[in-house]
Structures are given as structure tokens and as C-alpha cells.
Amino acid sequence: MSAFGPLGLALERGELSASELLAETMARIGARNGNLNALVTLCDERATRAAMATDARGARGERRRLDGIPFSVKDVIPVAGVRTTAGSRLYSDHVPEESAPVVVRLEAEGAVLVGKANCPEFALDPHTDNLVFGATLNPLDARRTPGGSSGGDAAAVAAELVSFGIGSDYGGSIRWPAHCTGTVGFRPTPGLVPSTGFFPFVQDGRPIAPNSGSFFARVQTIAPLARSVEDAWDVLSVLAGPDGVDPLVYPVALGDPAAVQIARMGCAWAPGDGSTPASQEVVDAVQQAAQLLSALGLNVVERTPPGLDECEEIYTAARAADGLELHRQHVAGREEELTETMRTWFDRVGDASVADVQAAAAARDRVRASVLAFMDTSPILVLPVANGQAFEVGSASFDERFRTLTPSRAISLLGLPTCALPVATSTDGMPLAVQIVGRPFCDHEVTAVAQALEGALHG
User: Fold this and answer.
1) What is the pLDDT of residues 345-400, one digit of tens each?
2) Contact predicate 160/28, CB 8 Å
3) Cβ distance 230 to 451 under 8 Å?
4) CA 35 → CA 324, 390, 411, distances in Å?
5) DSSP 198-244
6) Can you tell me whether residue 25 is helix, strand or coil?
């Protein structure tokens, strides 16, 4: 089947032209985006040129993998000639000269960029709001957060303004918005997708990679949000691969989810990461997913990987030791223009010694080795994405917002691929998602299990 299923097939067969699809897409954006504030800078002319190029190729009998599919890009990822602000007043008029490799790859495969998606300042908050564009609303309940930091992309995907969004995930910034909006977020193994250009990583106007010695570079990854596991995988297959700039991306070929035999595959589920209790509704959703996976033939046990409960403390220490030195350089002398969240971050992360950095890295390595040994017999883990549902806007303090995400941060620390998939609904109608977690570079196994679970849920 074509990428993006029936939509891709209609484009391929000529039953729908890319220009017609773009017109429908822009009409939906015009009708809904004004209230949602999901897309903050539209790319009308760029999108029109891309759609016309797709239609011209179709007339010649040529086809690319994502021809005509509309998408958004988080406003912290540069696009040449398009305003990219990182949600900060300091860069409200910034227009990059070059696009990040992920954008170049998607457009080369025919995907149509329709706009930049809103994000919190420098992508450092679980709620999407900033002083440049304001807040993004959750399409499911305007009183609740759409998540962050990829909340604009998640809202755009959930509201069907785009078919997929490109965001990023440091400590849950793809998975938490997916959880809040009922979409699918896929965080690949760090080392598959280049982070070159992730703002503010530029030098002389050109995108560069994050410092390879930093905790950020080893944990953060650019990642897709979509409305199905298959769609997210189709996008990931385009994003993956070295770019010659990011030294932490490896020439590892993606496996084939269709070749994975999930019957009798070992699977362990846990009600949380062990550091912060999850709500009963969240625990029930994880248990429901585990039961469905057992019915699909996996060998499912309830067991928490040893050391998982240490991850939150280690993640917090490593992130603090990493500091925000490059951000400090960019904001020097203009701190009064920052959001309260960014000022809090600068207060929380001080100068760290070499010993602090090494101690955090050693603790991470120790726990990671323990969890990977556990995954020799249980290569799939099922965990909550978050400890509760999407919170009401304004109801959670800085610490409370981040404490919600401890299960996601644990998996970020461990460097494991994971798919956030909605599996249940809370009593007040909000989606509840689980993480399907796999071993490093076994993203295809995560995809196979997540697809099977998604099929069982829909069935």
C-alpha cells in the first residue's frame, strides 16, 4: 500500500491531485487554526509550488514516497526562507538561510510543508505557550493543554490540519502531546535521525549539530507525530540516516516491521517508572494494553525493569549538569524578554563540574545496562506515557508539569525507541496513551507490536 494508506493511494492513482488536497487542507486551516493556534507561520507559496511539482510528476508517471502529503514542522526546526522563532521574542523575526536535513529529506520525497507549528520557548515546557504567538489549544478540550513541547504539531495532526507533524523529543515532547491529543508519537532510537539545525544550533547562519558531548545531543531526537503507527513509520523511514554533520547518527538500516513475529515475544508491563505514582486510570489503561498484547500472542508479564525507579533522579541530575550554556550565550543581556519558564530553567541549572557530568553519565550507564539485560528476555516494555491525563491550563506549576512526565523521561534517559499510542479514554473524555518500548535500534519491533495493538483496539 502507498504511504499514508487510502490518501496516498488516491494521490497515486490520480483520483485526487496534490493541488486539490492542498486546497482542502488550507480550507481546514482557515476554518480551524484561528482558534487552535496550532500553526503559527503558514507556507502558502512554498506549499503551492510543492503541490504543483507533485502533480507535474504524476502527469509524467513519476511518484515519490510522500508526494502531496501535507505536514507541519515545529518552530524550533529551521526551514530556509521561513520564519523560525523557537517561540522566543529574541528570534521573533529570525529567517534561516538553510533548512534542517529532516525538512530537506521530506520535501525531496514530495511532502508538502504547509506551516510551522507552535512550541514553548526553546521547546522547554510541557505546555505550548510563548510570548510570540500565545497558547495552542487542545482540539479535544480547549481548557486542557495540547502538551509540549511539540504541542502545535500534535494539535494540527489531531485537528486534521496536516497529515503528520515533525517535532522533537527530549523528555517526552513527542509522546506527551500525543497522549494529550489522542495522536501517535514515535520517538526513534537516538542515533537514527540527525538533529542538525535544531535551534539554536546554527553557526554563521548554517545549521550545525548539537555538541556531541552534551546530554542533550545523546538524548534528544527529532521525531514524527501522525494519526496511525503506519503513517509515523512511513515518515521515520524518510527521516532516518546520517547527514554527514551530526556525529551521533549512525548508518543503521531500519528493520522491516512486517518481518517481525510477535507471537511469544517477551513483554513486560509496569504501572509506572516507580518514582511518581500514576493515576489509577493511567494504570488501568496500561493493564488493558498488556491484556490485549497477551491475547495477540505475546508472552506478557507484570514486572518492572530493575533500576527504572532511579531514572528520574539521574535524568534530573544529568539535565542540570548539562546546563544551558549555548542558550545563555543567545539570551545574554535580554533575560527580561524570556518567559517565566525559561527564567526558571536558568535558575535551576547552574555551573557543573566535570565530576558532576561524569557521575551522571556513570549512573545512566549503570541503569541502562541493567534494563537492557532485563530486555534480553522481555524485549518489549509497556509503560505509561505520563502519570495523568492532559492537565487544565494554568493548573500545574513548573515542577508539577514536569513530574507528570517521569515515565517518558526514564525512557529518554535509557535511549530506547518508543511509540506513544492512545489506548483508552479517561472518565472525562481525554485520551490515555501507553508507551511501547523496544531495544536500541529495534524500532521495527516497536512498530510491529504497536501496529498489532492499534489493530486490536480498532477492531
Assistant:
1) 888 887 788 898 999 999 999 999 999 999 999 999 999 999 999 999 999 999 99
2) yes
3) yes
4) 33, 19, 34
5) -TT-EETTEE-PPPTTSHHHHH-EEEEEESSHHHHHHHHHHH-S--S
6) helix
Burial class of residue 377 in the structure, from the number of CB atoms within 10 Å of its CB (0-12 exposed, 13-18 middle, 19+ buried): exposed
pLDDT digits (tens, 9 = 90+) for 430-451: 999 999 999 999 999 999 999 9
Q: What is the DSSP string of 39-61?
A: EEEE-HHHHHHHHHHHHHHHHTT
279: annotated active-site residue: no
Q: 323-348: buried (b, 16+ CB within 10 Å) or exposed (e) per residue?
A: bbeebeebbeeeeeebbebbebbeee
Question: Cell for 304?
Answer: 518492572
Determine contact, residues 158/183, Cβ cutoff 8 Å.
Answer: yes
- Choose, from 72, 149, 168, 214, the residue flagged as catalytic: 149
Q: Among residues of the chain, what percentage have pLDDT more than 90? A: 90
User: Which grid coordinates belong to 235?
Assistant: 515518515
Domain ranges of the chain: 5-458
Specify whether 74 is catalytic: yes
pLDDT, tens digit, for every residue of 256-273? Answer: 999 999 999 999 999 999
Residues 6 or more apart whose Cβ sits within 8 Å of residue 329: none
From the candidates 74, 88, 214, 275, give the one annotated as an active-site residue.
74
Strand 184-187 versus strand 70-74 pairing type: unpaired
The whole-number average pLDDT for the span 304-327 is: 92
Question: What was the pLDDT predicted at 203?
Answer: 74
| Cβ-based burial of 355 (10 A; exposed 0-12, middle 13-18, buried ≥19) | exposed
- pTM for the structure as a whole: 0.97
Q: Give one DSSP letter per residue of 325-371, joined into a string.
A: HHHHHHHTT-GGGS-HHHHHHHHH-----HHHHHHHHHHHHHHHHHH
Burial grade of 282 (CB within 10 A; 0-12, 13-18, 19 or more):
buried
Query: Could you tell me which residues are beta bridge partners of residue 383?
Result: 435
For 97, the grid coordinates are 538561510
Q: Is 149 annotated in the active site? A: yes
Report the alpha-carbon distance of residue 382 to residue 6 in Å, rounded.
30
Domain 5-458: top CATH class: alpha beta
356 CB burial (10 A radius; 0-12, 13-18, 19+): middle
List the catalytic residue out of 72, 99, 173, 378.
Answer: 173
The string of DSSP letters for 121-182 reads GGG--SS---TTT-PPPPTT-TTB---SSSHHHHHHHHTTSSSEEEEEESSSTTHHHHHHHT
* DSSP 8-class letter at 189: P
Q: How far apart are CA 344 and CA 335, in angstroms?
A: 11
